[in-house]
Amino acid sequence: MAVESVTRSSPPPSAALLQNPKTPFALALLFADALLVFLIIAFVPYTKIDWDAYMSQVSGFLEGERDYRNLEGDTGPLVYPAGFLYIYSAFQYLTGGHVYAAQILFGVLYIVNLAIVLAIYVKTDVVPWWALCLLSLSKRVHSIFLLRLFNDCVAMTLLHAALLLLLHRRWNLGLILFSGAVSVKMNVLLYAPPLLLLMLKAMNIGGVILALAGAALVQILLGLPFLVSYPVAYISRAFNLGRVFIHFWSVNFKFIPEPIFVSKGFAIFLLAAHLLTLAAFAHYSWCKHEGGLCNFLHSRYVSMRLRFALFFSSSFPKKVGKSSSSSLKILNKEHIVTTMFVGNFIGIVCARSLHYQFYSWYFYSLPYLLWRTHYPTLLRLILFMGVELCWNIYPSNSLSSALLLCLHLIILWGLWSAPPEYPYVENKPSSHKNK
Questions:
Q1: What torsion do the CA atoms of 213, 218, 224, 226 make, to the nearest 10 degrees?
Q2: What distance in Å separates the CA atoms of residue 307 and residue 205, rounded to the nearest whole number?
Q3: What is the residue-wise DSSP string for 360-413?
Q4: Contact by Cβ (8 Å): 189, 344
Q5: Residue 153 lies in a domain
Q6: In a domain, 202, yes or no
C-alpha cells in the first residue's frame, strides 16, 4: 500500500501536464490563434516602423562595423545590446530582409511565445481554464508581433522561456536565457529584483553566485566584439538607463505636462516610487512567511557565514554539506510566477514612458495578476478590457493615459491587499525521492 501511494503521488511531469483539464483547451486555443495569425498576415496591411531600421543596423554590423556610434537606422542610432544584432542578423539571413517573410517568422514566434505562456498558466493553479482565452484577445499584441516586428517580441519570448525553466527548477539555465533576453532589450531587467529574491530563497549562496556569473558571462561573450574595440561606445549606447522618451508617444503619462514629463525631478520621483514599492512588496508579501525582507536577508547572511566557516574548518564532514543543501526548500510554482509578474508590473506602473510596443512587456501577465487579486470576476474582466482599450487608442491622450494609470493602480492595490500565498512546496516525504 505504501509503495502504491508513492507511485501515484509522483507522476512524470509530461503525464501530469496531459492529465491537466486545462491542457486540451490550451491546445485548442493555440490552434485557433494560429489560424488568426495566418489571417492577419494575409489580409491586414503591414505597418512600417522599425524593421527597416533594424535591417540597416544589422547590415552595418555584418559589414564589419563595431563602433556602436556608427550603427544607425532610419529611426536613429542603435540602442540595444549585442544579442539583438545576432538575432536580427539571423532574421535577415532567413528572410532576406523581406517584410512578408519576416511576418511569417514572427507569426511562428508569436505561437511559440503563446505556447510557452500557456504552459506557465497550465502549470500554475491560479487562472480558470476559460480565462486562458484572454491571452489571445489583444488586438494590440497581435499588431506588435505580426504587423510591426518589434524586438520586444523576441525579448519577451526568451523571458517567458526562462520563467518556464524556473518552474522546472532549472535555475542556471533559466538565468542564461534571462541574460539572453536582456541582451535583446533592457526592459527585461525589470524582472531582475524579484528574480534575485527568488534565487536567494531557492539556492545556497554558492549557487546564486554561480548562476549570476553564468548570466554575466553571457553578456560578456555576446558583447565581446564591441567590448574589445569600442567598449565605452557599446556600454553607453546599449545599456543607457537615462534615456528620455518623447512625450508625444507616451501611453501612460500623456496627461503630465511635457516640461514636468522630461524633468529630472519626475524621473527621480518615479524611481523612488519603484524602489519603495518593490521593497514594500518584498517585505510584507513575498517574504512575509520568512518574517519580512530584513529577517530573510539576515538569515541568508548568517547561513552564508556559517557555510564559509564550515568550509574553512578542518571538521567539515560531508554530512554537514548534505544537510545544508537539503535544508533549502522547494519554491511553490505559484510563488515564483506571482513574484516575477508582480515585480515586473511594479516597474510598468512606475515607468516614465510606455510606448505602444511596451504593452508586450506585461500583457501576458495580466490575467494571472487579475486572478491573484480578490476582485470579483466581473471587475477583473472590466479591468482587463479597460487596459486593452487604453492601449488601442491612437494617439494616446490625457484621458486615456490617466485612465490607464488608474487601472494600473487598481490592479496594484488588488495585488497588495491579497494575502500572500505560502511560498514553499509542502513536505511530502518519499515523493521527492523518485524525482
A1: -110
A2: 9
A3: GGTGGGHHHHHHHS---HHHHHHHHHHHHHHHTSSS--HHHHHHHHHHHHHHHH
A4: no
A5: yes
A6: yes
Q: Is the per-residue pLDDT at 2 higher than 50?
A: no
Bridge partners of 352, per DSSP, are none
Q: Which three cell numbers mark 369? A: 495578476
The pTM (predicted TM-score) of the whole model is 0.92
Q: Is residue 25 part of a domain?
A: no
Please report the pLDDT score of residue 75 as a whole number. Answer: 80
- Into how many domains does the chain fold? 1
Q: Please name which of 421, 199, 213 lies closest in space to residue 296, comparing C-alpha atoms.
A: 199
Between 302 and 109, the more confident residue is: 109
Among candidate residues 358, 391, 367, 368, the one with its CA nearest the CA of residue 156: 358
pLDDT band at 243 (very low <50, low <70, confident <90, very high): confident
- 342-363: b or e for each residue (b if 16 or more CB lie within 10 Å)? bbbbbbbbbbbbbbbbbbbbbb
DSSP conformational letter for 422: P
CA distance to 158, 199, 202, 215, per residue, from 172 (Å): 14, 10, 12, 8
Amino acid at 216: A
In a domain, residue 243? The reply is yes
Residue 316: which domain range?
A: 31-417
